[in-house]
Amino acid sequence: MEYVRLGWTDLKVSRVGLGVWQFSESWGLTDYRKAKSVVEKAIEVGINFFDTAMAYGLGMSEDYLGRALQELGVKRDEVIISTKIPGEYLNKHDIFKSIRKSLKHLRVKYVDLLLAHWPPCWHNYPTCEYARAMEELVKLGVARYLGLSDFPAELVESFRACLSREDVAVIQIRYNLLERWAEAELIPYAESSDIAVMAWSPLAKGALTGKYTPESLPEFTDVRSADPIFHPRNFRRVWKVVEAVVEVARKYGRTPAQVALNWIMRASPAVVPIPGAKTPEQVEENAGACGWELSWSDWMYLEELSRSVTIEYSAAYLDREVSG
Q1: Active site includes 56?
Q2: In this predicted model, what pLDDT tens digit does every residue of 242-264 receive, in sequence order?
Q3: Of 3, 32, 56, 125, which one is the catalytic site residue?
Q4: Which domains does the chain possess?
Q5: Mind listing the pLDDT tens digit for each residue in 36-49?
């Protein structure tokens, strides 16, 4: 496993982390024993960076992660743990109560990274109120660094302007070979400030693994089925990129997932992908994205093909006929 410094912080993290949203009803991994085996394999292959959130299973993800690390005998200073406060909790009263519950779930005295999960768009909490409340948690020693998840650059800047002692250490964004909007503003912004980028959905929810085809899409009951990428019209468009990833993977003796992860890591040194996993085998596969590098010509081949694809996020809406 390779390790890198996380932005301007003193945290040394594995080049590929592990997102544990899968430990929730949304993704169906609710068997603790299976979740523990995923965490165990991550530790075994050298992954030390774990991302969870209060919203994932309303604490199930945090609890399973904390319990597994404790039962596996992992020392606190051997892992980097990130958790997130959802937008509706971003007022001082809820922030303080929520982090206390998170620490209990995770079985730790502090988290390395505390992120606001998304802006409080429905509740209109003042930015400076939650920024300063989160900053106070750093002063109190229950969080080491602060971050923002799914915030536009303008709000990242507003949040930073409210801080008096701390600064934003990481931003977490949706970023993968098929969805590259973050390259327009967020990634350049992060690079200019030495802020780390945690890429969630780096495999486009599995679209880039080669598991799915235009004729074999996720079942209706699968959380992926509602994602615009898997809309039949969109998937037919992105299929040529998936086929190219599979082709390049064969050339390197790698899997499509490893190629897709390697591609975004090479796109920017600031990016640390945090793919999820539901099995130990998937963890090991994701870790195999490290230790090698796509050639410039192969990277550009995928880059150019990716840019030729347009995803209609309104596809389901556009297709629906409403009778009146």
Answers
A1: yes
A2: 999 999 999 999 999 999 999 99
A3: 56
A4: 3-204+255-292 (3.20.20.100)
A5: 999 999 999 999 99
